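Bug #77: duplicate submission created two jobs. Keeping one. Sequence:
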Amino acid sequence: MIPEGARASTEPPALGAVRLEDLVDREALGELAESLHALFGLSVRFFSSDGALLADRVTEQALCHHLQSVPGARAQCARTIDHVKRLVPDGAGSAAHPCFTGAEYLVVNVTYEQRRMGRAVLGPYLSPEIADPPPSLLLVDDQLDPADASRLLPAMPRLSRERAELIAAHVQSALDLILFSGHKAWLTSQMHLASVTESYRTLEDKNRRLADAVDRLRELDRLKSNFLATVSHELRTPLTSIIGYSEMLTEGMAGDLSAEQREYVGTIREKGEQLLSLIKSLLDLSKLESGTMALRKATLDVATVTEQVVSTLLPTARKRGVHLESSVPRGLARLHADGEKLRQVFLNLTENALKFTPSGGTVALSAALETSDAEDEGVGFVLGAEADERLVVRVADTGIGIPEAERARVFDAFYQVDSSSTREYGGTGLGLSIVKRLVEAHDGTIRIEGNTPTGAVFVVSLPTAPPSSSSS
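Kept job's structure:
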């Protein structure tokens, strides 16, 4: 995780901290050592800048093997090898280190862009001019048999210093190509890593700011809900008094009213009831958003609910000249639901349909049993999932319809398709939002379909009650 305030650099990383093993695959070094051994019979070792062995191809010489059995020679061999491993030539050159056997090792600096990356050690090899064991070999230990030394020494690889230097140059050239290719790949990977790191940091920063914004919005939403609940509750008491006194005035309890006065009082009462309905909607929305609205569920027949809705709104439909009909048969399905809340759902949908349907149009309620699975509900196919029987109620009208692009938004609180100050149809934009929340509280779904050639169809899908459900 990137520390707070840190910013990833997109500049190419410096080569200073890069090791030989970061740029060259050990297997590639092993193949190079193998090829040199095959061509020249030389043992080859590659070391990193800190002395770690990266790859080698070594054939133990017969003389060296024999010397390991001679205590004094074995100790001298160990000292020689230790010196060779620690030898660092100057610059980009090479340096020879003699062995007490008369052979020598050639240590070559592995450099790239004038930086020492490691070392290659060639040998041991024997100069062509050496024919007999040198005194340094014969005197290394009294237990060494000169005849064995004379017999085993000539088996060592023969190589002149000039030839060894040419091989060293060849090693450096081959490594230059390998290092150049490795450096390009390393730079690409480092730049990609830096880019991914910066993208991650940016995304993490955006997520943090987004989370802060969500927290602020949640707090504002909570304050809004509390404000609506408080204001709505405080408005209901005086508004109830206004409606009550207007009813008493209409009934003549304060004396007879003239026709004009009765008309004014009737307007006060009508507008007061509209305002009370709005306040009740705000309270319902506040309870639904806060999760404090309780559902009193019982097993019921949806036909009973739709019949009540049609009976309530039939006078309104006749007044508007709209034909209101219901074809929901009794006994179609039983629901385990809050009857009053479902009545509010279908009352709101039907009343909404009547409002947007012109005279001579039709509003129809229908219901049917449909089988759906997880895929139908939009959550993807679930292998082995059992089919779910649901009751689907449709409220269809032949009104002005809802544009397809607006169908998902009409369920947002306070949203209206026509929100201009000159809109033809009134309303607060709360009804459908409350409907959607009430349907979802019953584990149901609601969607809108087109009604060819005009109008809209609100489709409410509710789970049916299991056979063992009983009234509660």
